[in-house]
Amino acid sequence: MASFLERVPLFAGLPPADCAQLEQRMPRREFAPQTVILREGTPADAAFVVLSGLVAVRRKDPGSGIEFLLAELGPDQMFGEMGLLTKKPRTASVVAIEPTTCAVLDRPLFEAVMRSLPSFALSITGALAERLDRANQHVGVEYLNLSRVKVDPRVLTLLPQALINEHHVVPVAFCNNRLTLAMTNPNNVVAFDDVRRIVKGVLIEPVVVTDEDFKRFIIAVYAPAAAKAEAASAPAPKAAPRAQAPSSAKGGSATVDLFTSDIIRELQLAADEDISEAETKQDLMSASEDAPIIKLANSILGLAIKQGSSDIHIEPMEQSVTVRFRIDGVLHVVQQLPKKVQLGLMSRLKILSKLDISEKRLPQDGRISVTMEGRAIDFRVSTVPGKWGEKVCMRILDKTNTSLGLDKLISHAPTLALVREMIAQPYGIVYVTGPTGSGKTTTLYSALAEINDPGVNISTAEDPIEYDLPGVTQIQVHADIGLTFAAILRAFLRQDPDVLLVGETRDKETAHTAVEAALTGHLVFTTLHTNSAAVAFTRLNEMGIEPFLVTSSTIGVIAQRLARRVCPSCKEPYAAEAETCRFFGLPDGATLFRGRGCTACGGSGVKGRIGIYEVMRMTPALRAMVGRGARAEEIHAAALEQGMIDLKRYAALLLLEGQTTVEEVTSVVSIDA
Ligand SMILES: [Zn+2]
User: Fold this and answer.
1) Of the candidates 19, 68, 297, 391, which lies 20 to 30 Å from 28 by C-alpha distance?
2) Distance in Å, CA 559 to ligand 1 centroid
């Protein structure tokens, strides 16, 4: 029988005889499910090779005490070896998920073998050099062979299959907000944009795959799953990557954080009174009225608020239910719940959202209103039918959000003055552009808050209504009943408005009505989905708006992005690399800042967010260019000549002020720079 060590990459270069000899000297240890095999922070005294079973690698977030899942390892995978080499304390905990057997390589044996088997030392050196090489290659775009990598099925579910097929991309790894995206065309800018729209704020590291490789992968992953669903009796073909969801917690104790959490005492559910509505759905009701289920649902909502999350994702997998929170734009796995809670939890959330709990095949939208510590907070809930059951997404709308205020968002005084001058105009349109999740709405609300006084009639058409603005008429878009942005806008015009906010301009009708409103003496604020200010004109042109209408109605365009701030508690200066200075036009050896990682920021070195702005005020020269249909690049260049600060230069200012990090701004401005 071949030695198991031959299948472990770290030992791959070792002669089979040496593998067998070493294997003899490694004792076996058995771990029951939930046993902690090694604990974060303790000294590293051994490495382990999984012979059978499954383990989870987890790292604790010191802020909340919540453990985040980093990886799951199965047979022939190894853990703990870095500790033996670095002699530093463990950086993560490893817990058995299933009954697991490991072969143990302790430090005395490791060191003895290093001395007695030169082939082992060489093999390890080779494997480590390869790891280093892989890490270095991430700087440029590298080639990837999809059949050689194990794609975590949860990473695969980050992107919908339709998007994967459309752009020929495969999400292969996700760690520290970095998504490794295998692409047949790494210059596909639209793909980057679409991926960021779904995984908000993610840093994308493209790797190149061939067309054939992509097709083989898709067939291997999706065909067996479909076949399996069709004919449960037929054995599914063996897929190269792990196509199925990982087997996960069998008992309930993996859920201990959420089940035992008692932070929710203050959380009052406004929807509680309405539970009787669904009394006919007896089975679902009894499942959802279970005390642990109620507690679990409350824990999820309360914890998400406490952690400052913007979204909650609850996704059934084949054998578990994944709970993820989006915090500062990044999705974190909070917990894998056992499959058996799925029905009750989903029903409970649907009851709270006043949805039909028996309808599982159609998407539904609802809302949960809660108060926590005196704050009114709404969850906008949507359900979609998924392969392993309904998926629930909840957007958290904190209506008492106190982060509004142009001066809080725009730290650069001349830019702030320019924006204030633009919103003080009596009529015309101010466009705010940027990808989804770039903070456009916050900027618009802040602008409205500045001009909101009893003498001004302000009306908004929004989807969704994210903040309450006293004294402002706010209307929710309901496209399904014909209440579109354009329809609301036309109705407003008969209501003697002064200022109108149109949540998003995405079609000709809305764009046209907004222009009309501006030209008839109204001040209009709206958003467009473009990457830079100058491209707004191209976009309007594509929507069929005549250039002369654009030039006569536009006050200016604000492009924006959000970057995460350096954590103030662990911020430290360093001398910037020459390449960074060149890219951002900084003086040589400029002092920049980064976060070391501390308990305040959960080890990430970043905390909270800051805006990056590019404000293009219309001038006679720019009007003339837009009027004759000049290209976006020409308009951008002309605006720069007239003193506009673009996203990249604004980012450079923030870097020099120590507000954010190179890593953060590179991810948000590199595409269009
Ligand atoms: Zn920190």
Assistant:
1) 68
2) 29
Q: Which of 296, 287, 292, 288 is nearest to 263 (CA)?
A: 296
Tell how far the Cα of 385 is from the centroid of ligand 1, in angstroms.
39
SS (H, E, C) 624-659: HHHHCCCCHHHHHHHHHHCCCCCHHHHHHHHHHCCC
Q: How confident is the model at residue 374 (pLDDT cuts 50, 70, 90)?
A: low
Question: How many whole angstroms from 411 Cα to the centroid of ligand 1?
Answer: 21
Q: What is the 3-state secondary structure (H, E, C) of 541-557?
A: HHCCCCHHHHHHHEEEE
Helices (H), 56-180: 81-86, 107-116, 118-137, 153-156, 161-167
Helices vs strands, H then E, count in the chain: 24, 28
Q: Is the pLDDT of residue 295 over 80?
A: no
Spatial CA neighbour of 526 closest among 557, 488, 495: 557
pLDDT value of residue 146 = 82
Lowest mean pLDDT among 84-88, 389-393, 546-550, 563-567: 84-88
Write the pLDDT tens digit of every residue in 184-225. 887 777 788 788 877 776 778 888 888 888 888 888 776 655
Residue with tokens 């082992």: 120
Q: How far is the C-alpha of 105 from the C-alpha of 74, rounded, in Å?
A: 17
Closest CA to 58 of 315, 249, 304, 242: 249
| Strand order, beta sheet including 100-106 | 28-31, 100-106, 46-52, 78-79
Structure tokens at 458: 């302000």
Question: How far is the C-alpha of 410 from the C-alpha of 654, rounded, in Å?
Answer: 10
Secondary structure class of 98 (helix, strand, coil)? coil
Q: Kindly list the distances between the CA atom of residue 113 and the CA atoms of 106, 119, 122, in Å, as whole numbers in the listed order.
A: 11, 10, 12
The answer to whether the beta carbons of residues 57 and 4 sit under 8 Å apart is no
For the stretch 111-143, pLDDT in tens is 888 888 888 888 888 877 877 766 555 444 567
Cα(361) to centroid(ligand 1), Å: 44
Separation of 305 CA from ligand 1 center, angstroms?
20
- pTM for this model (two decimals): 0.51
Ligand 1 centre to CA of 404 (Å) is 24
pLDDT digits (tens, 9 = 90+) for 315-327: 898 888 999 988 8
Q: Kindly give, in sequence order, each residue whose CB lies less than 8 Å from that of residue 229, ignoring residues fewer than 6 positions away.
A: 387
Please state whether the peptide bond connecting residue 464 to the residue before it is cis, i.e. omega within 30 degrees of 0: yes
Rounded to the nearest angstrom, the distance between the alpha carbon of 594 and the centre of ligand 1 is: 9
The full DSSP string for 306-371 is HTTEEEEEEEE-SSEEEEEEEETTEEEEEEEEEGGGHHHHHHHHHHHTT--TT--SS-EEEEEEEE
What percent of the chain is predicted at pLDDT more than 70?
84
